[in-house]
UniProtKB/TrEMBL annotation:
<dbReference type="GO" id="GO:0003676">
    <property type="term" value="F:nucleic acid binding"/>
</dbReference>
<protein>
    <submittedName>
        <fullName>ISSod10, transposase OrfB</fullName>
    </submittedName>
</protein>
<dbReference type="InterPro" id="IPR038717">
    <property type="entry name" value="Tc1-like_DDE_dom"/>
</dbReference>
<dbReference type="Pfam" id="PF13358">
    <property type="entry name" value="DDE_3"/>
</dbReference>
<dbReference type="InterPro" id="IPR036397">
    <property type="entry name" value="RNaseH_sf"/>
</dbReference>
<dbReference type="InterPro" id="IPR047655">
    <property type="entry name" value="Transpos_IS630-like"/>
</dbReference>
<feature type="domain" description="Tc1-like transposase DDE">
    <location>
        <begin position="7"/>
        <end position="144"/>
    </location>
</feature>
Length: 178
């Protein structure tokens, strides 16, 4: 396939839950603000993928990280890829990121990043953005609330495709013939 017909996607999953992130908050000078830190352990996994060239995104929220949910996520990416184009999905080497998952897709391939190199996957900045801007300093009543709040946070992030492009674009993903 010609390089100009390949869309580079970055994929990963992150766990969000009751053991949540605490961040700095604004407070009146001289006061000491309080942030509640839950002790419960319910959580959900947000599978996310971004195509920085177009600002296109796909996500699902699941109770576990495994190959069945990974296959469902790849299905969404495949369906979001325009006819006549090919999705190159760049991801880490998690145990459920298996090459054989792509056998069902004509328009999708997986490229695994080297071990211990999260800095090469821009979706890590998406998780950081979600935690710092939407989900930090928050308590969740249970699994359904976690799913709801993660959905709201993801939808706020993707509401501005320019933000997706700006946060996730990397020069080394521009595929051209030299």
């Amino acid at each position: 396939m010609a390089l100009d017909r390949i869309d580079v996607w970055f994929q990963d999953e992150a766990r969000f839950g009751q053991q949540n992130t605490t961040t700095r908050i604004w407070a009146t000078k001289g006061t000491r603000p309080r942030a509640v830190r839950q002790q419960q352990f319910e959580s959900a996994y947000l599978y996310g993928a971004v195509c920085p060239a177009t600002g296109t995104t796909e996500a699902i929220i699941a109770p576990h990280a495994n190959s069945e949910y990974m296959w469902e996520h790849l299905t969404l990416i495949s369906e979001a890829t325009e006819s006549g184009r090919h999705a190159l999905v760049i991801m880490d080497g998690a145990g459920w990121h298996q090459q054989d998952l792509t056998e069902d897709f004509d328009n999708l391939s997986i490229l695994k990043l080297p071990p211990y190199s999260p800095e090469l996957n821009p979706i890590e900045q998406v998780w950081q953005w979600l935690r710092q801007n939407e989900l930090a300093n928050r308590c969740f009543s249970g699994y359904d609330d976690i799913v709801e709040q993660c959905s709201i946070a993801w939808n706020r992030f993707i509401a501005e495709p320019e933000r997706v492009i700006q946060l996730c674009s990397r020069r080394w993903t521009k595929l051209t013939i030299a």
